[in-house]
Amino acid sequence: MKQNSHMPRINPKYIRIAGITVLIIVVIMLIGGYVAYSKREVLLQKAIYKAKSKAKRDYNLDVKIGSARFTGLSTVDFSDISVIPYQRDSLLAIKKFVVSVKIFPLIFGNIKLADVVLQDGRLNLTSIKGVKNFDFLFKKKKDTTNTGNRVDLAELSNNLVNEVLYKIPDNLSLHNFLTSYTDDSTRVKMLTQTAIIKDGKLASTIKVDDGAATWHVDGIMQPSDKQIDVHLYAEGKKVELPFIEKKYKLKLNFDTISTRLSNVKHSDGETKIYGSWSVRNLLLNHPGLSVSDIIVPNGSIDANVFVGKNYISLDSSSVIHLKKLTANPYAKYTLNPVKIYELKVKTGWQNAQDVFDSFPTGMFESLEGIKVTGKLNYNLNLFLNWAHIDDMVFNSSLQKDKDFRILKYGKADLGKLNKTFVYTPYENGKPMPPHTIGPGSPDFVPLQQISPNLRNAVMTAEDPSFYTNRGFVDESIRKSFITDIKEKKFKRGGSTISMQLIKNSFLSRNKTLSRKIEEILIVWLIENNRIMSKNRMLEVYFNIIEWGRGIYGIREAARYYFGKSPSELTIGESIYLASIVPNPKAGLYAFQPDGTLRQGLHGYFNLIGRLMAGRGYIQRDTNAYGFYNVRLREGLRREAPADTLVADSLIQQTGDDDATIGVAPVFEEPKHPNFFQRLFGKKDTAAAKMEKKIEETNDAIKARLKLEIEKVKADYKNRIANVDTAGKTKKEIKAEKKRLKDEGKEKERELKDRMP
Fold first, then answer.
1. Looking at per-residue confidence, does 138 or 548 come out higher?
2. Which residue has the higher pLDDT, 441 or 662?
3. DSSP letter, residue 341
4. By CB atoms within 10 Å of each CB, which of 327, 433, 641, 723 scores lowest?
């Protein structure tokens, strides 16, 4: 088919004008290049002089260069470079350093390294008796141009990334560069024998501590395209870091660790860094983490880091991979105008067996080998505004679908507490005489033979919602976090009776992070799969917990302190026993030499007694709920210490970091009413304060229950909306939703009935 249209012709006049313009630009560049080339040695020496002066003025560094000269159009050859901080050990020495830059980026003011040759260098870092030869790095330089504006983190991160990438040369030839670190107790040496970058590929050989190990770093290194994919591994063995183990008591080694940078974008005031990190056969061991080695066969994170003007975040599009388990994390740290911390983790519904199989080896010994079916879904939500710590948000939930069940227990038989079993307590890591827990033991006490006074006093003090919670009280855990943050130490825990029971029955007493997580998992499995009834849990709890030095089980405790059976305990004796559960070894210190209780416990008795009365467990009492009637068994009275100050101090000490969620003992001397107060019946100051404390406690209980009710509503709304419809008829789906709706309403009613 014939075309009728024609391309428009360019006027030859415009072509000539363009050609002349280009020619003029080329001539100007050539003239400028000639001038720069002819003056380059002078310019180089001026630049070196300025650099030396700046180092001396700003950082107190003495920089020396033996020689510096151009050996090509854009190549500079340096020799005998040294950097020595004032009155410090020598920091850096390089025998030969050759660097060339790319011409085209240089025209636009960007220095991009083309080739680098470095031979025979040494970086020496020392920290001897608190004196560091690299402390200048941490000194803040005065900025006379500062206008009070805050740093834009997005711009800063973008500039930093580009600066780092642009300073990685296209081609590198490095030979014999020694890096060493020396402090008062440790010395580490790493000799990079070779490091070569050629055609975008990196290869290196590093000798550690005079040949004790040989490391290699290799992979793809294309900084111009913002493409980096490198791997660190050891030759014939694991990469080990004995320096970290010696310094921080953390044993750490691995087969391979990989780092990949795939892209960096900057737009709309935000810098986005896309990358990933992975590790193979990572081994960790730390006294605060676990008593045994924890091994992660393979783990990785596809991390998308977003940096804004005043925040840095790990975007929710990031993915954590741990064997078969995947999770989407979200973390954000806002620096100003107030510090805000945000953390979310979502796994989505995943095969339950994959979840348990993905736990690192050595982390959860009791659960090792467990077989389950069904699906699990975990969600974590934490929000903390530093200006409003008390409003911290904390929600953590592990959901199961209707098909979830345990097919086979792991190393620990989670159902053993339903039968007669042998319990071996430990003291300072050493086993104590074993106790048989069951009808066959003369010291075993069935729940119905334990005084209701004691049962109710301990539940009120330790876990008020024991019969209705599923082993956890989120509000108590939230408050424990708030307390720990304010006190800047682990001062308050959030252990329910269920958690205390599992800790004592299945786990070691080592205070490690892995043990705490394992405790939470076992409690969840037992509570959510109805492996034990609440009555049986409470029965076992009273029969195994410690009540004093070497005193285990309530029969021993009742006989030891009062010469009674558990069924005969009075309200006063029961409140006393509840007071020593958090610190049983201080039990005798509560008594005076004549067998009466120290006045420091008077307020605690009033508080627990009134809480019990408010729940209908006992009648209200104006005589401190049996405080004045408690008498220590006569044979023990000589062991009660006479020093009141020492005794009160010991009573207040907590014997376990896993503090409970209930009411801690209140130690205060009661103020006795004067003559006119007794005559006219006016409440004394201590009593008035106690009444106020009771009211505040009741308000706190109401607030907590309201939060629990809202959480139950949200939980069941989510369950109903996510009912598994696979293979079900509409009728079956409708019936399942109705069942969940009714179950949710029943739980709401249970919580409302507990309102004080």
1. 548
2. 441
3. E
4. 433
